[in-house]
Amino acid sequence: MGKASDAVSGSSDPDVEDWVRSFRFPESGSPELPPHHPNCLGCGPANPHGHRLSVRRCGDGVHAHHRFDSRHVGAPTIAHGGAVATVLDDLFGFLLYTVGELAVTRHLAIDYLAPVLLDTPYTLRAHIHARDGRKLHLRATIENDHAHVVTTATALFLIVDIDHFLTTTHQPHHR
Ligand SMILES: CCCCCCCCCC(=O)SCCNC(=O)CCNC(=O)[C@H](O)C(C)(C)COP(=O)(O)OP(=O)(O)OC[C@H]1O[C@@H](n2cnc3c(N)ncnc32)[C@H](O)[C@@H]1OP(=O)(O)O
Fold first, then answer.
1. What is the third-level CATH fold of 14-166?
2. Cβ within 8 Å of residue 33, ≥6 positions away
């Protein structure tokens, strides 16, 4: 696995620095992709409130099987749109393993085409639609067991260096 931490220069938060130091990009032949970190809301196995998303490579992209449950309810029997967005944002976050770069969400857009039902199996897929320098243009779908796409998403992720996670003085950006 490739290390992301060669440029670590120091941090005010030892937990963050530990995470950065231990972050690894899996080998390109490895189908299983590791969680971003143990407590990640999307994929961390140690987060009791999390989705525990398990993601694999699929061709040039990634895919996952997922069921939303009663913790994610919006209207009765239907997953909350914010929970769906969380899972899609995290799924996009797995594409960074396929490019071997650290990247974060700059823009996320979701089309809710049909309700995402609780306790129902779905297949999630994401891929890199285009790369333009630091800009990763990403696309994803959620599909039900009848191969109907119920949700689509696009995102712009921006490649960042390790200092993005180490600094505590981020300023807001305005476009
Ligand atoms: C690696 C580990 C990952 C771990 C977990 C993954 C979990 C899932 C992903 C996440 O949830 S990440 C957490 C949520 N995201 C953030 O906290 C990011 C907060 N935003 C920032 O820190 C900064 O805005 C960011 C570093 C993303 C960008 O700041 P920059 O100053 O580096 O970039 P800038 O805003 O100047 O934009 C760079 C380029 O993108 C363009 N751009 C920005 N927003 C755009 C937009 N909405 N549409 C099109 N282009 C856009 C912008 O015009 C510009 O184009 P040019 O370089 O060509 O001039």
1. Thiol Ester Dehydrase; Chain A (3.10.129)
2. 26, 55, 56, 57, 62, 94, 97
